Amino acid sequence: MTTNSRERVDEIDLKIINLLQEDSRLSYNKIASKLGISVGTAYNRIKNLEEKGVLKGYTVLVDMDKVGYNLTALILIQAEGKHLLDVETEIAKMNNVVSVYDITGDFDIAAIARFKDRNNLNQFIKNLLSLPYVKKTVTNVVLNVVKEHIKIKILSEPQNQPNPKRKI
Known about the structure:
Layout: H1 3-6, H2 11-22, H3 28-35, H4 39-52, E1 71-79, H5 84-92, E2 97-102, E3 109-115, H6 118-129, E4 134-141
Antiparallel strand pairs: 1-3, 1-4, 2-3
């Protein structure tokens, strides 16, 4: 959210967002009950969040391992500067790609992708390297997933910041 749109999202909106992140199938009635607001208020606030583009859609979370996509790769890509957006757009269209990020540092793009096996990953990288304006890639294979969520608990005040004195 930009600072501007953040100003229009109040504490009740944040609570609604957090509830929907936990279970996007919650009824307006359940949301209203959990928050102590009327069903009409819950409905209107959710519709308003949708219209503002705060809520972009509703989806299911699939355990990718259980459907055979048990190999995750983080792929760093160098691209020719003036064609960066073209390369990012092409990568974003690829079926295995979960996320594409425009980054700083030695590489221009970071992509996260899921594969069924090493052969699929190998073919993907070869196709990626054959794209015009892709100069170089570095592929990192994920060995163990420690945390993987697309949601965060949205708070009105920043909390849960790293404590440098905390012993791990």
